[in-house]
Amino acid sequence: MSGEIRARFRVDRGEFALDVDLTLPGRGVSALFGHSGSGKTTCLRALAGLERAPGGYCAIGDEVWQDEARGLFVPAHRRALGVVFQEASLFPHLSVRRNMEFGQKRTSTAERRFALPDVAELLGIGHLLERRPDQLSGGERQRVAIARALLAAPRILLMDEPLAALDLKRKHEILPYLERLHRELELPVVYVSHAPDEVARLADHLVLLDAGRVVASGPLNDVLARLDLPAAFADDAGVVVETTVAAHEADDLTRLDFAGGAIYVSRHPEAVGTPLRCRIHARDVSLALAPAEQSSILNCVPAGVVDLAPTDTPGHVLVRLDAGGTPLLARITKRSAERLAIRPGLALHAQIKSVALVG
Amino acid sequence: MGNPDLAAVWLTLKLATVVTALLLIVGTPIAWWLARTRSALKGVVGAVVALPLVLPPTVLGFYLLITMGPHGPVGRLTEALGLGLLPFTFPGLVIASVFYSLPFVVQPIQNAFEAIGERPLEAAATLRAGPWDAFWSVAVPMAKPGFLSGAILGFAHTVGEFGIVLMIGGNIPDKTRVVSVQIYDHVEALEYAEAHWLAGGMVAFSFLVLLALYTFNPARRQRNVR
């Protein structure tokens, strides 16, 4: 079932050029992240077969969808994939149920992997089946669109900024469903986004695109902890830490354990033992040679310096740390780096000023 | 209303029904092509389709008469096929009416196809529907208001034509004498009472058609809401 995704596209439209050569894992969520105009949507459309990139190549596992060297191009409707667009694009003349059946009807029984009631239950839309699309909220529409795509027996699910058209409340309504999808289905997902928090929350593999080129591609934290990313991404520099809810303490703090230690956050509703992803920005991490007892900063973990790199922020450097196997990034001033004589191999303490919970 | 009047009404309805059916068959692919093409010919074809909107029916009728006449290419073809000549026959009148009412059917359908946009068809493609399948299962149902408008306008416009009937059809009872011509005959003969029946009927019919179009057409209603 699983199979890695190989794609090579070259598109030249004068103003805009795309030149990518990608290998994405055949499981989990691969995020294509970049600013608008970076080519991420074009890349997704080419994967889907909605656009034909001249000279392109695209295969999933042993199934080749495009190989222009052999003049092969499988049109979108013959590819076993699902696409979720930014707008749900439900068919307005069909009920929710008929929308969901649209793709399912066009697959062979042998191919089908999910049953309609199961998918409806997974996405929490069982009570909406007889409604018409115009009677749904934006979040509900998008969930129906995801269900519709899943029922077409895809080998891969492509999502083009599926949350971008929704307000914050709707986003938070959908994200848990996307995580559920991720946990419960063995289905590789390619997720296009320009929202760092969505990527931090959902992605396992991250591809950074800038001006039509792949800047970095690899497991989420390997990419996030790189120091050599272009300025466009440096402002959001930070890592994602996989933690587990360890304890809810009496003073309304929740302890989260991770490979490199523990961090405290405001009381979190999740039960002890729940995995939780946290995002720690480089700008929120400061460094101290000794644990600062006399400080209001609660979260302080021992870490070793791996390397340093200049940043585009004047007077600052980016320090890559290793905290018991968990990479961390810290952005500090050059002056401090010199004063503390920060160099690779130095053991110190990373003070974390704030933690963003993303899961 | 005498027998010739009823015959004229019957003939008119028959003509309009046949013409509307043909227009939907001929007009739909033209509308689809016009709505989706990026060809440079789009402007030319669009203009040709729209010509009957601005040309006097006599001009169109004149050229059709020549083309379908004994020395015209179509006339030679129909004679060679043993079909005889088309002018002053019911089939000839049907062909002329199809040309004359074409824009009234093509344009609403074209607008409806254009309003759908690319996205629903792309969504259909990613759900395993080929182009032909997506056309019937997505484009046509979504363009239904346009088809309804096109059919109503095509039917009503065919019922209301006069000039082109005189040019191509003449005034042959049961073959080409439609209501509008019959009214003309009544007026010429100073039979105002009979003319009133038919003319009043036409006014009522046209009003009802337009009322239906403006009241029940969901496309127009939506546009007002937005």
Describe what this molecule looks like in 3D:
The complex is a heterodimer of chains A (359) and B (226). In chain A, strand 10 (205-210) and strand 11 (213-219) form a beta hairpin. Chain A contains nine helices and 21 strands. Chain A is of the alpha+beta class and 359 residues long. The longest helix of chain A has 17 residues, at 168-184. In chain A, strands 7-8-9-3-10-11 form a six-stranded mixed sheet, sandwiched between helices. A five-stranded antiparallel sheet of chain A has the order 2-1-4-5-6, covered by helices on one side. Helices cover 22% and strands 36% of the residues of chain A. Chain B has 226 residues and is an all-alpha fold. Chain B has one domain (4-225): Orthogonal Bundle (MetI-like fold), CATH 1.10.3720. In chain B, 80% of the residues lie in helices and 0% in strands. Chain B has twelve helices and no strands. Chain B has helices at residues 3-36, 42-54, 57-68, 73-80, 90-116, 119-126, 131-142, 144-159, 163-169, 179-188, 192-216, 218-225. In chain B, helix 1 (3-36) packs antiparallel against helix 8, helix 5 packs across helix 9 (163-169) and helix 6 (119-126) crosses helix 7 (131-142). The model of chain B is unreliable at 220-226 (pLDDT under 50). The interface between A and B is medium-sized, with 24 and 19 residues.
